[in-house]
Design brief:
Length: 772
């Protein structure tokens, strides 16, 4: 029985770390579907498997005292490496100081919703690293872990290839045919992952003795290279160049590497020729298909004024300015977005989105400087230096030499790509795995990790450890349950978004109650849901006052819990106060303005805050100040004539200009300045004649100034565009009734009824005409 339990624990340990290595790259929100499709699902899975690994490892040490021998041996070996111990101590200290001096402790501890990189996540990465040191006990286990890495990458690459050929089974907001994303949701993230894993496919190819295995690893390598190209990630290509340079350098430095003997067999030669031909053919076909996209990427590379290159330069310059303000300990983990966006400039809207809030500097070292200051960067670089020394010593002393070659190329390519990007869940977890393998290569073969333990625990010790084990099992079970509830809450929030699309208001309220009942950290959902309700209520006011009253009650409750000092907190409060403000709550206008003024003070170049403030002032009836702020928001937008402006960003700028023109038109109309009002409404019409709202505005404008014929004509124009929308003939019918033309009113009323025979308002309208 005792032996069986130990065997179960060993299986659970192997299952836990193997599942983490294999599943993490390929896992995303297929089932259950969640709002945060990638990073949240990956980190939840990682935490659960790490907790399983921790509990099973602890139980093994407690109930089998002989396990202490290996534990003591590894610990003793690590203690002898004073530089390594000091490096870890310095890293932990830097994180503690960074968190202490953080400008937003909640972000730093729990992490951002979309990045999941707070102190809590880093703690799990560290635990995973430590547990790997005590559970990967042989070269065979290490090599199996490497095989799992490559085996997992096959599924990632296969999905990426399906996307490249236009056979993605899922539909994403951004097309995956132009730039593949596979199971990572972002091309640059996929490319960074490939850089981490592809050297291990090469290592396994050369170390495999079975020819079928060699062909398999070669096929995986080819798939990964195809995926790397079709990410169209410049940072990925640069990283590949760096890692390839490392391979070449190692070969030139050590020509004893017996590459030639691996190609002696005719089968291997034919396999190489076949896969090379497949690679070139597939590369040519897809490249021809995406020729224009490839040209644009190369164009952005050579032109630093446009595209992602220019955007990164903007973020880097802003980061350097921010670093000068707090150079020693930084701003705390996950607070880069709060700081970088304070340096937002008008021209940022050319290479990237207007009002962009980048929550990363898109450079590893700048991110570290922002979060942990120079102290944090020194700690990180020193840790890398210590591990680099160990890798080079492993190579020199022939301790898993070829595996360490692959590790060196892997880390070089990955870190090079992160000079243009940022870390991610799989990257962090695999980074810990690779560092653990480096240390284990160094430990391998030493007698200090061997030996026997002749002494068991006394009875009292067994009792104490049994109680501790039960307590730990309870804590782990609670933690796993909490992680699962996090995913469930995100699933409910996705359902809320779907309920909004389906116009199921009360269903969304029920789902939001489900999220609250889970008792997780739900502040992010409260902020998001309040914004959904505020945007939703005006669209369903027509169905009755109960919707508005219910919505107001919900956002009031949320308002009482939004007491933080983050940008999102100020913005949420400003939205809610604006929504709730009215004749009975005039003081809410002042509260809204106070929050908007904070945002404008700290983010003075962002047009969206002036636009939102102007909308609030317009609702308040302060039309002159509304016009002033609408005008400022226009001035903060980039010129539509900028030669570096791509069609996508130009369309986004036009969209904001459209709504600013509508706001100006409304404000001037409220002042009875018909000339200025008409001018701005027509400007909006010129920008986008395909949005129904502009015809409603122009019709109302014409009606107020007394030109009923013009009001009817604008509705007639809209009806030609949206011929199956009953709202337009119904609006025309009502206008004809006001002019006294009941015959035309009935004609268009019947047309509207034919398009929507169930509408009560249309029925009442036609009945009122029949009475006459």
């Amino acid at each position: 029985m005792n032996f069986r339990f130990k065997k179960i624990l060993n299986l659970l340990i192997v299952f836990s770390y193997s599942s983490a290595i294999f599943l993490l790259p390929i896992f995303f929100a297929v089932f259950p579907r969640t709002n945060n499709v990638f990073e949240l699902n990956k980190i939840v899975l990682f935490k659960i498997l790490t907790l399983s690994l921790f509990l099973s490892s602890f139980l093994k040490i407690v109930f089998y005292p002989e396990e202490k021998v290996y534990f003591r041996g590894v610990t003793k070996h690590l203690r002898r490496k004073k530089s390594l111990f000091f490096a870890f101590l310095l890293a932990v200290l830097s994180l503690m100081l960074s968190t202490y001096f953080s400008i937003n402790h909640q972000n730093s501890i729990f992490g951002l919703y979309d990045r999941q990189a707070g102190l809590g996540s880093l703690f799990f990465y560290f635990i995973f690293f430590i547990l790997l040191l005590f559970n990967l006990r042989s070269k065979a286990q290490i090599k199996n872990a490497v095989r799992i890495v490559v085996f997992s990458s096959f599924f990632v690459a296969a999905y990426g290839l399906a996307q490249a050929t236009g056979h993605d089974p899922y539909h994403w907001i951004e097309s995956t045919k132009s730039r593949i994303t596979s199971t990572f949701g972002q091309p640059n993230t996929l490319s960074a992952y490939i850089l981490l894993v592809y050297p291990f496919s090469i290592y396994l190819f050369f170390s495999a003795k079975n020819y079928f295995a060699k062909i398999t690893y070669l096929a995986v390598f080819v798939l990964l290279m195809l995926n790397l190209f079709f990410t169209y990630s410049i940072s990925g290509w640069i990283g590949f160049g760096v890692s390839l340079a490392v391979f070449v350098f190692l070969y030139l430095k050590n020509k004893t590497i017996p590459f030639k003997r691996f190609f002696e067999k005719d089968m291997i030669k034919k396999s190489l020729i076949f896969f090379s031909a497949v690679f070139i053919l597939f590369f040519a076909i897809i490249n021809i298909y995406n020729a224009n996209y490839l040209k644009s990427k190369i164009g952005y590379l050579v032109n630093p004024q446009g595209g992602s290159t220019a955007a990164r330069i903007d973020f880097w310059q802003a980061s350097l300015k921010a670093i000068k303000e707090r150079p020693i300990f930084g701003y705390g983990l996950e607070n880069q977005g709060e700081i970088i966006s304070r340096y937002y400039a008008k021209d940022w809207g050319v290479p990237s989105d207007i009002n962009v809030i980048p929550n990363r500097a898109h450079n590893l070292f700048l991110d570290i400087l922002l979060t942990g200051g120079f102290f944090g960067l020194v700690a990180y670089l020193f840790l890398l230096y210590v591990f680099l020394k160990i890798i080079l010593r492993n190579i020199k002393e022939n301790k898993s030499r070829y595996l360490n070659y692959a590790i060196l190329a892997s880390l070089a390519g990955y870190l090079a790509s992160l000079q243009f990007n940022f870390s991610f869940v799989v990257g962090q977890a695999y980074f810990c795995l690779i560092l653990a393998i480096v240390l284990l290569s160094d430990i391998g073969g030493e007698e200090s990790v061997l030996g026997e333990n002749k002494n068991g625990f006394p009875l009292i010790g067994k009792i104490i450890f049994s109680v501790l084990s039960l307590a730990l099992a309870g804590i782990v079970a609670y933690s796993v349950n909490f992680q699962l509830k996090t995913l469930i809450a995100d699933h409910y929030f996705l359902e809320i978004r779907q309920a909004e699309l389906d116009n199921y208001f009360f269903k969304s309220l029920t789902l939001f109650d489900y999220i609250k009942e889970l008792k997780i950290r739900d502040l992010e959902y409260k902020r998001k849901y309040s914004k959904i309700i505020i945007d939703w209520i005006p669209r369903i006011d027509q169905y009755g006052l109960v919707f508005r009253m219910t919505g107001e009650k919900v956002v009031k409750e949320i308002l009482g819990e939004i007491d933080g000092n983050s940008r999102d907190d100020y913005l949420t409060r400003a939205y809610i106060y604006t929504f709730l403000a009215g004749e009975e709550n005039k003081n809410y206008y002042d509260s809204a303005e106070e929050n908007f003024n904070y945002l404008i003070k700290n983010y003075p170049e962002m047009p969206i805050y002036y636009y939102n403030l102007a909308n609030m002032l317009q609702k308040k009836g302060d039309y002159d100040r509304a016009i002033e702020n609408f005008s400022i928001s226009l001035d903060k937008l980039p010129s539509l004539n900028d030669p570096n402006l791509n069609p996508e960003h130009k369309k986004e700028i036009e969209s904001m200009m459209f709504y600013v023109f509508l706001g100006l038109g409304d404000a001037y109309l409220s002042k009875n300045d018909f000339e200025q009002s008409g001018t701005y409404f027509l400007k909006a019409l010129d920008l986008n004649p395909k949005i129904p709202l502009i015809y409603e505005k122009l019709s109302s404008y014409s009606k107020i100034k007394g030109d009923m014929e013009e009001a009817i004509n604008y509705n007639l124009k809209a009806r030609k565009i949206w011929e199956y929308d009953y709202a337009w003939p119904f609006a025309i019918a009502k206008l004809y009734k006001e002019t006294g033309d009941y015959k035309k009113a009935k004609e268009y009323g019947e047309i509207a009824s034919g398009l929507n025979s169930e509408d009560v308002l249309i029925k009442d309208f036609l009945n009122s005409l029949d009475v006459r």
